[in-house]
Amino acid sequence: MSRPHTAEVYRIDWVPGTDWLHGTCHCGAERDGQDPVEMWEWMLAHPAGHDIEEDR
Amino acid sequence: MSSFARNQWYVAAYGREIGRELLGRTILNEPIAFYRTEETGEVVALADRCVHRRFPLSASRLDGDKVVCGYHGFTYDTTGTCVYVPGQKRIPRTARVSAYPVVEQDSFVWVWIGDPALADATTIPRAPHLADAENWTTVGGMEPIDGNYGLLVDNLMDLSHETYLHGGYIGTPEVAETPMTTEVDEGAGIVRVSRHMDDAACPPFYERSTGIRGRITRWQDIEYHAPCLYLLHSRIAPQGVLPNADGTDPDAFHVEITYAITPSTDNSVYDFWAVSRDFGHGDEEMSAFLHDFNREVVMQDVDALNLLQKTLDTEPEGYQELSINIDTGGLAARRILARLAAEGAQGAVGAPVPAAAR
After folding, report:
1. Highest CATH level, class, for B127-344
2. Quick check: A12 and B328 CB within 8 A?
C-alpha cells in the first residue's frame, strides 16, 4: 500500500537512451551526472551546492 | 555494510507459524521465543534465555500461558516475570526476562527491537493485500540466508539481476536494459524504484500464469519501507495496454510481491517472501505452480547470496566495489539504513555509528 509522499523527496531519473542520470532535489535544484555515488553525495549535501545549476 | 537499525519494527514470523508450540527466532542478534496465549490467541515474545542458566525457553514447554523452563522449571508469565522457581518460596527480584512489543498485522507478526517505550504500532508499514483473501490470492514462505541482510537489500533494490540470475524464469533482457527512476522520501523513510518496460518479452512464469502470449507491457514499482518491508507492485498487460484514465485497470494482471527482510545475526537474514495475485482465485493448481516456481527463484537468490557472503568473508578489509546506474536504488537504501542505524544507536553506550553509505 502506498503512503503519501512527504515534502523531502529526492529523485534521480536515468535518462532513457543515455547513460546519464538526472537528479532533482526537493528544493528544485537539478544536476546531471554519470555516477550514482557522486549524484547522491551532491543530492544529500543539500543545501550546499544546490543554488547553481550545473551543465553536463 | 551498515550495522543494524534498532528501535524499529521487524517481521519475526508469519502469524500461521506461531501457535501453542514455542518458536525460537533470533532477530538483530536477540534470541526470542514466541507463542500464542491459550484464551485470546495473542502472540507473546519473550527473551529466549532463562535467567537462571541461560537455557533456551524456545526449547521448553508451555503450561497454559506460562513458559516452564525445560531445564530447572523456572516459570514465566506473559510479561516475562518469573512466577515460580523450584524448591523455594522467595523469587529473586531480578528473575524476569524481557518481553518484546508485538503486533500481528497483514498476516505478519511484527516485533519491536529497541526501547519498548518507543514502540508505536502506527508506524508499522502496511501490506494489506496479504490479509485480503477476497481480492488477492497469496503464496509465500521464508528462507534463511547465510549472509548479511544488506546483501538481500542490494539484491532486491536492483532488479536488473533478474536478467542474469533468474534468466528464463522471471528475467528477460529488457529488465537490465530499461532505465529506472529512483526516489527517496527522506521523511517517510521510503525508497521507490520504478522501471516501466513498454515492450518486453513475457517471461515463462507470467506466460503460464496469465495466459498472455506475445510481447507485454511490464511495470515494476518498488516501494522499500526501510528497514524491513519491501513491496514490488508488478503490472503485466499485453503490449500497449495501459490503465484507464480513471485509474481502473481491468485488462492488466497485477502481482504484489512482498518481502520482509529481517536481520537475524550479523551474517544471516530471514527472507520472508510472498506473491499475491489478483487473478486465478481458487485455482489451486496455479497456486501450487506459483509457489514452487517462486520458491525456485528465491532459492536462486539464496544460493547466490550464500556464495557472495562466503566470498566476501575471504576478502581483505575495506575491499572496493564499483557502482553504476543500476545501483542508484541500492545506494539510496544503504544510506537510509545507515541513517536509521545511527538514529537507533543514539544513547546506546559504546554503540558504533556506521560509516556513511558509499
Report:
1. alpha beta
2. yes
A39 interaction partners in chain B (CB closer than 8 Å): 328
Question: pLDDT for B191-201, tens place per residue?
Answer: 999 999 999 99
Q: Is B106 left (phi over 0), alpha (psi -120 to 50) or beta?
A: left
Residue B1 has pLDDT above 80, yes or no: no
Q: How far is B315 from chain A (nearest CA, A)?
A: 22
At position B173, the amino acid (one-letter code) is: P
In this predicted structure, what is the pLDDT of residue B345?
86
Query: Which residues on B lie below 8 Å from A17 (Cβ)?
Result: 179
Q: Name the A residues in 12-51 with CB < 8 Å from any B CB.
A: 12-17, 19, 21, 34-37, 39-40, 44
Pick the CATH number of B8-122 from 2.102.10.10, 3.40.50.720, 3.20.20.140, 3.40.630.30: 2.102.10.10
Per-residue pLDDT of B40-68, as tens digits, reads 999 999 999 999 999 999 999 999 999 99
Residue pair B203/B159 in contact by the 8 Å Cβ criterion? no
Query: What's the CA gap between B252 and B178, in Å, rounded?
Result: 20
Whether B252 contacts B236, CB under 8 Å: yes
Q: How many CA atoms lie within 13 A of B344 on its CB side?
A: 24
Contacts of A46 in chain B (CB under 8 A): none
Prediction pTM value: 0.92
For chain B, the domains span 8-122, 127-344
A27 Cβ neighbours under 8 A, 6+ residues apart: A46, A47, A50
* Complex confidence, ipTM: 0.85
